[in-house]
Queue: 4 jobs
Job 1
Amino acid sequence: MQKKIIDLTHTINGKMTVYPNTLKPSFEPSNTIERDGFAELKLTMATHTGTHIDAPCHLIKGEKALSDFPLDKFIGKAIVIDCERKDEISLELLKSRENDINEVEFVLFRSGWSRKWEEKDYFGKYPVLTAEAAQWLSEFKLKAVGFDYVSVDAMDASKLPNHRILLSKDILIIENLTCLNKLPETEFDFYAIPLKIENADGSPVRAFAELIR
Amino acid sequence: MQKKIIDLTHTINGKMTVYPNTLKPSFEPSNTIERDGFAELKLTMATHTGTHIDAPCHLIKGEKALSDFPLDKFIGKAIVIDCERKDEISLELLKSRENDINEVEFVLFRSGWSRKWEEKDYFGKYPVLTAEAAQWLSEFKLKAVGFDYVSVDAMDASKLPNHRILLSKDILIIENLTCLNKLPETEFDFYAIPLKIENADGSPVRAFAELIR
């Protein structure tokens, strides 16, 4: 049984795209081969740097941190739903995939927006779940939903309503995915693996699909 | 097909064990719900914090960084070899498992040392690969080797010879694993998933086994 791994993660570096008014990651030598005999970098980044996952306490005080979930929460069956060239992700679009959504633990939305990574336009008008679509989706037994753009809410949605609808049901949110065009049309094994940070409101993840070939 | 996930990773927090003379991780609010409407933590840690993986350039200038390997490098079949209550990991011990080692991509060594995590004695005399055992092991087609203690070399081995023997063959080194006592005696699927940091000499990982039940 041969596995094919598809990496769905943006590279973390000093010039990467970050959400407006949040921390840019940086890297500096902490130990060096010359001085210490081995090299280590000091990493400075945020819990929401790059491809990452949001825990409920990212928005809602007193709700769960990432470390309140077992690792199993970040692994399961997934499908991808195409929303390229759409103005929004409508209830109608979701209902057309209801049977598939019922069978999986993760739904990923492919807008093609990851092609704009490191461009200013990345923070433009990507297709967002409508309020009724977010509400309908939140009734499923999903572990998380994922997007190839920066936020489950529109850039001008200051109260972040879709975040609240999903996180209040412990449906986690994966943002800044990439390479979703490499995924099959049918169900696949999906992983969004965070660091094991105590009480974190989120974590950078290594997201990938594992296909049997 | 039901999967069982066994997490083999220490929790990252401010009081965790770190290698002598290296950076302690720290966490502080970077964005807050009160001020920004959402919470993010600023993470400061090293590329070798907690359960982590070493790339060749951790010790050898000009050799490969972690980002030079595809994600596939961190996933594969593994066995665990028991070295509890042994003074060293001898060639004889390894040879007794030669057939098994030939079948896998990862060999994990279980000394029981992870029980001393957060104790001073963690940096004591754990059982280390002898030079001939490390050399013999480096001839296999392994992706990485892993340990439930802090280093593939003894604490007083200033030149880190076992690191050099393995890393020069692109066999990566996973250190500070935990819970290896929960693993089966036979082969299993193993993951040591790093962050996707450009040109890093290592990365904290989320290490886990996936068992079919």
Note: Chain A touches chain B through 58 residues (CB under 8 Å).
Job 2
Amino acid sequence: MKTYKVKVYPENIEVIAKEGENLLELIRKSNIPINSVCGGEGVCGKCKVIVKSGKIDTESTTHLGRSEIQKGYVLACLVNISSDLEIEIPLESRLEEGQILLGNEKLYSKVSDFVRTESLEKKSIFKLFPLTIKLFLNLPYPSIKDNKSDLERIYREIRRYYDFPIMQTGLSVIKQIGNLLREADWKVTVTLGMRNKTTEVIQLEKGDTSCNNFGVCVDIGTTTVVAELVNLNNGEILGVKGSYNKQISYGSDVISRIVYATEKKGLDDLRNAIAENINALINSLAIESNIKLNDITSIVCAGNTTMTHLLLGIDPGYIRKEPYIPTVSFVPVIRAAEVGIKINPRGLLATLPSVASYVGGDIVGGVLASGIAESEDLSILIDMGTNGEIVLGNKDWLCSSACSAGPAFEGSGIKCGMRARNGAIEATSIDKNFEVKYSVIGNTKPHGICGSGLIDLLGELLKSKVIDRRGRINDNLSTDRIRDNRGCKEFVVVWGKDTDTGDDIVITEDDITNLIRAKAAIFAGTLIMLKKLDIPIDEVKHYYIAGAFGSHLDIEKAIFFGLLPDLPRNRFKFIGNSSLTGARQYLLSEEARDKCESIAKKMTSFELSVEPGYMEEYISALFLPHTDLELFPSVK
Amino acid sequence: MKTYKVKVYPENIEVIAKEGENLLELIRKSNIPINSVCGGEGVCGKCKVIVKSGKIDTESTTHLGRSEIQKGYVLACLVNISSDLEIEIPLESRLEEGQILLGNEKLYSKVSDFVRTESLEKKSIFKLFPLTIKLFLNLPYPSIKDNKSDLERIYREIRRYYDFPIMQTGLSVIKQIGNLLREADWKVTVTLGMRNKTTEVIQLEKGDTSCNNFGVCVDIGTTTVVAELVNLNNGEILGVKGSYNKQISYGSDVISRIVYATEKKGLDDLRNAIAENINALINSLAIESNIKLNDITSIVCAGNTTMTHLLLGIDPGYIRKEPYIPTVSFVPVIRAAEVGIKINPRGLLATLPSVASYVGGDIVGGVLASGIAESEDLSILIDMGTNGEIVLGNKDWLCSSACSAGPAFEGSGIKCGMRARNGAIEATSIDKNFEVKYSVIGNTKPHGICGSGLIDLLGELLKSKVIDRRGRINDNLSTDRIRDNRGCKEFVVVWGKDTDTGDDIVITEDDITNLIRAKAAIFAGTLIMLKKLDIPIDEVKHYYIAGAFGSHLDIEKAIFFGLLPDLPRNRFKFIGNSSLTGARQYLLSEEARDKCESIAKKMTSFELSVEPGYMEEYISALFLPHTDLELFPSVK
């Protein structure tokens, strides 16, 4: 078979391609982190590369602007290689870890703030009792009179400190005990892991090493992965790092990843991708804090149900088929090494339990972290990530549902949408002459608009009457910013002369429709849950907004847009990455673990799509802010 | 390096040997089962081979008779190879499985009797609840309303039958669940394993396979290994098979095996030997009953503490070093595959708990099977295998000790001693002219004397005054059967013309001393335990004799010899291989497992060697039957 050389810049790597091989797949295989929201279907337009030399035979696409095409831009997923090539992968098509933490300090410093300062109610601070503990034992010497076996001697000593009902030890540890105890002169440190209400001796070390005991908690988002390194002896957070989820190369949302895992037999690829992701984060956290991987004895992951299945290498196929049944909700604690996570070889991995296929461990962690489940007050928790999830309840009951909001708020499916990073417009204002002022993350030339920027922009467009309450663009206004583009109306936010690509940044009527649908899904979901339980919206005393997205949001504009209900503003609270906070609590406290299990057991889930009345609510919410203005008195 | 060819008959195998290689080691490596009691030290004289051709340079030994030397017999362990050889391994030097069951029907039919007919008190018949159960589940189909995850659906259904507090499932099983449930139309059979008070789903099969669930129980003796195949659904014994413990090639007693394991780094050899042993037994049991190895879902092993350590590959080194501490007494249930036992790949292996280094799971199993621990009456259990162990107690308390009786009763360390198999003299009578009548196992020409034969013989020698109460041979009697051999007196039991080798079968004064020491150790141990607890011997209402050896013993002569106390004869009861019975009960019943754990926890152990007064008792017992004839009124 014929092969070609593909040179990739700026890496300056040469890769060998087979005749007809897909360029996106080649780049993926070469382990160069490239963005691809749709998973290689030519739909999202995110895998742009610049062809420097070589013959290209590609399909036409609306995802590339004229000036881009002139510069040699193509979509990698639409190229089948038929000659030697030289290509460059530009910044906007890359998934680079550095960019998240370093290139977008603004976003991540906020996330970190939430992480570090604990945006938690006092009542949900739990007693420290980590998933793995180290205990120094100064064992009494054996004698003819005290001739218990080595293992029972260790158990007896442990039980002087803790009343563990069931203790276990694996054969590989038992095999080491005899010599190790004697070489250590009976002074040893045991690492104890809490597994399913049993306690496992997972490691024995000579002498007193109890001060070196660390854990990692991870929020596995569909889009980003954030990990914290924690000192298990005192709960101190030693560091936090984030990266894009490498699985993005295989599709941006859970559905496209499930399809890739099952129909394209890509389960292993996806499992490897997330394991590499997490390992890279752990490694760099460990280096930064100068600790050994071997001293990391446990890891707790929170993610949606699909992310959890993929992490564990479990086929997620049935999650997307009616009646939407996951393989497992309460995942047993396993050894991290079983799924390729590199910490102590016998270290444990726990995953937060989920409620249903679309209400995962991330939400359960969020409920844990928010303290909803311990409060007399009725609260709502809303997590607007790649999916939108809503939880309603108090200490007596909890119900949840997932909205098919889609990834519009993450900038996906929006012509000039992008994630919140350098070059993203995050706030706008429109004056009476329709001139637009905007602020850009990183103070660079703008490249696109991020989620919070879009919500902000829609509020402005509505206020300035560029759009009506149905989101339709009014083309009778006297401004050249409003124009028709092949039958679709659009509003020019920034002219090409001021953008980094030279192309205009616009918002189209289709974009607006997408965004309104997304907000309608979330708002209707909230309302139907309240209605079903016969609770007036005003009885909701706390409205927690989770997700990195939340911390950017202008509450006033989000209410004006109809995404958030018109409640007194002081009831809203951003709790940041509450999934990560929940995972940390799970890592650090037995009480939290019990609480978490009971939350997952207690919480019911609605499948909104089959809920009677949901469609009507959804349709009513397709107005800005809503068909029923009585719901928005302050807007009225 | 120079090499030689060694041809081995009757196998007709050619093996290549290095210059100077030890012949015993070569034979072992070639996997030809050869006897070696001392483990290759030239001490036991059991590894006799016949040299057919080739030059031999060997040390002289007293273990070979004149006629043997003439026939070309050598001890393999004393030969370093320095030429091409042709050798034959004669029957008496072989460890062949066939011989045990087929060549010695008499012994083994008795063992099997005990196994099959349950020589148990009624009170120790336990409720059937095996270590692994199979349960057919006809799961309700999932729906939007009933959207529990697959695993929780399985758990919920299991809990309709059993109230298991803690359920676990390994990742490898979880990964199969999704597809398997749907392919099986939600009709599946789960295999549940009881592990340490938790319940593990170890396997999922399509459809109803619950009728195919089998287990194996094994008594791992130092000398023999006996395995039973059991139907776990009803407790029926489908077959029983025995073999010599292949570890015998590395030494006949636990001490020589510990030395081989630790000082000669032979732990792996020993572990492999016993695993091969057990696998061969299981295989042949499975073939005979026409069942699949995959349907054997659990195995329970009972053995002394050293055997258990070796089975698990745990260094037994500290067992023989003061203060005699084993690594583990309560061994967790593991997967059989972890130690190379070939049943269902996820099948479980449990080992009976031990009490101390020299009071093992075999004894705990014996106590369980005997019913001692459930009786108001005071009982003694004595197990005379390669070691002698004594248990004293009732339902409220139990104490145990091990006697360094040595292997004399197994024919080892006795000039013409042999194990109880074809050619062994098992009973004798001596008339007033000192003529000897004898019966031989297998009705062949005699080859040696087995343990029960030796006890029988000593009783006869004492009665006919050939020996005095100290075991000294009276050389003033007018018979040519009494003679001096290089300064050691001996009594000729059978003249060479009537034996299978042509050499006389004798018992020497040294043999008699060895046997008296062995019985003294056991009797003194019994007495010191009673004394320490201030219990008159007559209060012992039941005296259980365990071990294959026991079933051959003539009670009357054993009392006359001073091995057994002078109690009413109806208090003695042979309970055969009670270790195997205990293992079967452990396999079959949760109640038995709990009982077994509580026996092992409750039982105390004396270390006799440090017990004050033990030496005096021992010395007093060196008389026949005893220094204190008041203890033996019926003999007096």
Note: DSSP finds 16 helices and 27 strands in chain B.
Job 3
Amino acid sequence: MYQVDKLYEAVAAKGPVCVGLDTAVEYLPPGERRRAASDAEAVLAFNRAIIDATADICACFKIQIACYEELGLAGLAAYAKTLACLRERGALVIADIKRGDIADTALRYAKAHFTGDFEADFVTLSPYMGMDSIEPWLSYADSRGKGAFVLMRTSNKGMRDFEYQELKAGGRLYDVVGDRLTELAAGRLGNYGYGAFGAVVGCTEPEEAALIRKKRGNLFFLIPGYGAQGGAAADAALLLREGNGGVVNASRSILRAWAANGITAEKDAADNRFAAEAARKAALEMRDAIRIAAGLRT
Amino acid sequence: MYQVDKLYEAVAAKGPVCVGLDTAVEYLPPGERRRAASDAEAVLAFNRAIIDATADICACFKIQIACYEELGLAGLAAYAKTLACLRERGALVIADIKRGDIADTALRYAKAHFTGDFEADFVTLSPYMGMDSIEPWLSYADSRGKGAFVLMRTSNKGMRDFEYQELKAGGRLYDVVGDRLTELAAGRLGNYGYGAFGAVVGCTEPEEAALIRKKRGNLFFLIPGYGAQGGAAADAALLLREGNGGVVNASRSILRAWAANGITAEKDAADNRFAAEAARKAALEMRDAIRIAAGLRT
């Protein structure tokens, strides 16, 4: 069974929210950060609180490795411990690592992120170097059901620089990436019609969303761009199919929900428990908004 | 002063070889691996021997992080210690991390790889998401002279999948990436006419090489594809200008030189000292072959 099937089932049961553990130290309640033995310890304790508060109402978690690498070796230890915490709780996790290297090197990365200290269920990959930077990862789809989301059309401003380039043969660069990913998915199709490997498609260009969803029927989507990057529930829903077939990521708006509602003088008093409650509330609101936009009952 | 200026001076003084510390455990003399307390320790000891044996005859080192990530946290500790060893010896190092993420995330990666445990002089970057995945790194060019090599036209087979796509407006995708990198370099030009940020251009397509070198006058090149991937000294020389303006990477052919010359029965006896001598010999031969092909005296 591919992890993408488990992800499909998680979305059906718990909604399409992907909680982004892009846990920058500046997102933490300042008091918690001050009290902790180190920034890395503070990040780990915060993550545990967020995971406990949201695991039953989100499909999965995404963990942005850059936030941990920034803290050096201690940060990567916190990264490994956060992954261990997620595995203990049976939560699905996407390692947002955007690796893109070839052949032997790709296999080494795959071993690093699909086994051992840094084991995740899914990774994100960058396709620039070509399909020989994606295909080696498939051996872990075959042996362990692991999955990947390959950058196709992202949600940042710079996506227009290269992803949007119009090709001589017609279409844009991201269409050709999509074509190759569609082939890949067809070769490893799960129980719900989605391939083991899917794509990253941002919800910031709603005019294209319905077309992309229709054209890429067998690709499960990791959908960034919600909230802070401007995407709304209605935009995200366009990339889903009956509310499934994708997970919608939010990071800052969930992790920093503790700071959002008029907490200013009391900011220092906010602790992880308070932050976790605020995160749960934000994730629930997001889930319900997307479900409603997708035409489902909440 | 930009690190690219130091790199230019290193090439002038010591030749264009970049020794790739893509130190997979299976590259080590088996006896050394067996004797070491752990694979990560074995890799570190081997790296120290290779660095000591080649630092005076190579321009710089490249360190492929995947080989260390593969060993988990212990591997990344060996990665950090290898970088520390290179800094102690005053050697220039390119962290081959091929990161490509945007905005805040890019800044976190830049902090991770230009300061602290994982500090390097240069990194490799992937441009798929657009220039907002490259530009944040420039703040470290301004504050600390750091540099980057952005994937432009690589040396793997899969480069034809996307990098080679012909564009409606003319040229190929890698040309547009090259155009943007040329602009970037023009804004941060070092003392020898090369920008702080350069490009990765493989030496596997000699028919294009002279044109690329001519068109990208202000880009310093990191040149993969030599040896194991089929590039010859003459091909690499086409991407240089009077033997400078780029560094030519070789990994396996240098690290595994100990195994190359008929060592079979004695394989187990080969130790790090033997491997280091063989690596030095291989690097010297490569340096001289490229210098001759570039029309210089060795």
Note: The two ends of chain A are 28 Å apart (CA to CA).
Job 4
Amino acid sequence: MTSSALLTDLYQLTMLAGYLEQGMAERPASFDLYFRTPPYRGSYAIFAGLEPALDYLENLRFTEEDLAYLQTLGLFKTRFLDFLRHFRFRGQVIAPPEGTAVFADTPLLSVQGSLAEAQFVETALLNIINFQTLVATKAARIQQAAGDATVLEFGLRRAQGPDGALSVARAACVGGVLCTSNVLAGKNLGLPLRGTHAHSWVMAFGDELAAFRAYASTFPDQCVLLVDTYDSLQSGVPNAIIVARELREAGHELQGIRLDSGDLAYLSRKAREMFDEAGFPQVRIVASNELDEFVIDSIREEGGRVDIYGVGTKLASCAGEGGGALGGVYKLVECDGQPRLKVTGDPEKSTLPGRKKLYRATGTDGRFLQDVVALAADDHLQPGQRVYAPHNPLQSRRLPEDCRLDELRRPVMEAGRRLHAPEPLDQLARRCHQQLEQLPEGCLRLINPHRYKVSISGDLSDLRSQLIERALKEKP
Amino acid sequence: MTSSALLTDLYQLTMLAGYLEQGMAERPASFDLYFRTPPYRGSYAIFAGLEPALDYLENLRFTEEDLAYLQTLGLFKTRFLDFLRHFRFRGQVIAPPEGTAVFADTPLLSVQGSLAEAQFVETALLNIINFQTLVATKAARIQQAAGDATVLEFGLRRAQGPDGALSVARAACVGGVLCTSNVLAGKNLGLPLRGTHAHSWVMAFGDELAAFRAYASTFPDQCVLLVDTYDSLQSGVPNAIIVARELREAGHELQGIRLDSGDLAYLSRKAREMFDEAGFPQVRIVASNELDEFVIDSIREEGGRVDIYGVGTKLASCAGEGGGALGGVYKLVECDGQPRLKVTGDPEKSTLPGRKKLYRATGTDGRFLQDVVALAADDHLQPGQRVYAPHNPLQSRRLPEDCRLDELRRPVMEAGRRLHAPEPLDQLARRCHQQLEQLPEGCLRLINPHRYKVSISGDLSDLRSQLIERALKEKP
């Protein structure tokens, strides 16, 4: 992955130059990274991208070549370029572990450091966390829809460029999709690879049975045949059964077939019957062709007999209503020890001021009840306490007396160095799976899911009200 | 951009191993890359990604590290890994120049070479061409909607990872969006950079006027102020006018303001009035906030006075109906000198067999009339001739007697080496602009555009009919 200090918006550099000139660069500051709406019209997102983000922060530095380029822009003074030469990220980062289910209006990453360093890293952190979280969430939705069936990612040909595809493969793992067709992702991330042949293989032979026999002779123990080049049930499956018999006579077993067009629910049921009747119950059925969580859900709903779903375009492009991009933002919440607030006409777009803790309330049945955002200095949060809606102090509710409150985040970087070794990707996938099992009923529904509750503590609600009042008084 | 031979789907390698084992690897083959539906429910796409694709082809080779990894998969024989060690792309590529308006069912890239090399490059070519073409098309739509106003790309924070963002910046240029906020893209591609400050700048000062003054003192000649942290018309614009006066007294001029929320058509008109009345007609108005071609079109429709549109998320994520991904495919059309065909139940998904030429018919008024796909060996295509619908030989029409026919593509690579130096990006952008001006009326409409005609020659139509007939006869 490209990791250059220049991978940023120009305005981060102009602001940095401004802070330096104003003598403000070293003031302590704290930023929160969060999103306002969960993606895909769902109830949750799966937090991902932390390790690549920490990599970026640890390695952030301007090369002489970078500085020479910035000089050519005619915007910056020599003093500023000297400052950049020694610029490092030496701040603190607080975050939940990757694979955690997270919700709107709760701080994911919180970054503390000098105003200069904590501001500058905004663009890269958003780039990494927004995209990885968006893909991990899509993968989790797809894997949920597929139930116990395996999902295989093969979005490389439709991904946003070569490295976009590598990011997709990693984030898909966090969401539970651990197999890929992308050989480079397999190598770099240690993922299991899957893949057989394309229609062109059959077309190159001209004769489907000859093509199947040739493939089986090359890979007698890993043979999966694509059966829809001409007609799946009339030609593809019968030819695959001939090859399955020939393989068995030679001491091998056909592994599977792939259906890539037509009515996948119907075709998979029919193909299953044909293989079972022919004595090949071990042959697994792979389905592909513009699959997403909704199509997979309907295939299962209609009794489709698919063992493996191959998902490409819709996963790599994070397709679907409310997909495409996660609108994560990065907002200043404290500067020079003073809480900061952005007030706008739209209350939903106002920020939550101050450094924060994030609690998750869990019921006695082990299900998550709600998340509560509190101030870092706020020690009072207890079961039974009254908490408030994030954007309206008139809406409040009590936390149940018997709930458990856990902090969801921990420091992951201090003084610019990461505190923990990266977790293996399959561990992140297991965490994601576990988290989804603990969501309140209805949160996993694909359409109009139950909206998971997020609240803020009384102290945070009061602080915001005071700051808004003060801002209004200062106005003409 | 990552350029590894392993950036491919596993099945390219298994097929390659199969072709080698079957003694078919060196057979001559020809593939066409094309799409079936234009993106964004529009009428056209802007072809982009050729240079990165040629870079990939020229540099394709397996390193010893790649081969060592492939050996660990337990799939491949030593003979195959030795074959890969010397594997290069030495084929021919035919393509239109980047920035050309292209249409469904016409071959964009055609690749000829050995079956092994021409098949293997499928995944990477699709990855590069699909995404670049998708972004270039979105950029062209947005720039068209913006008319003479400048469009600035700042999608980095919402792009598909770091390199996704670099691909976006390049492809956006092909579509006519040449300014970016992405500093690394500016450096690597030589693009003009734009950017000012964020809301956090104002929040760090707490006082908007103080924040504006500080920014103006740092960049007195490049000062653009973000006016919506509190209230654009009540606070932001009046404060910006104070700073504009102070700058002028000191011998400088305020360059502009940026509106980032609210009713941009209304706010831009009001802000324009306020600056004009205060004697600052030179102040340019930048608008941003989830802009795309539709929003920009409606702002202009309602008399908005925006000079510069900043477009981020919707461009970088290729948002919109029919966006997200371009469904480009890569199909075998000839093998061993024999035309090849994929027949499916769905005629729209059948392929066009044989090696091809692509003609564009232009009317006497300089407007494009239609594109015609012909066989490479087909020398007869002339004005006045009868041509056929791509998927139905019963639909035909005559080319006008007075049209001009030009071949749209040329060889760009022979024996694995590119034939021409890369064109500058602004030249590609100019070509795109020129091409859009020559489209038939109605093709640029954002909603339900006129569908540009694509036809196939009589020889090609006949060849396909014969091959389908033959395929049907061979079936049981």
Note: Chain A has two domains: 10-136+323-474, 144-316.
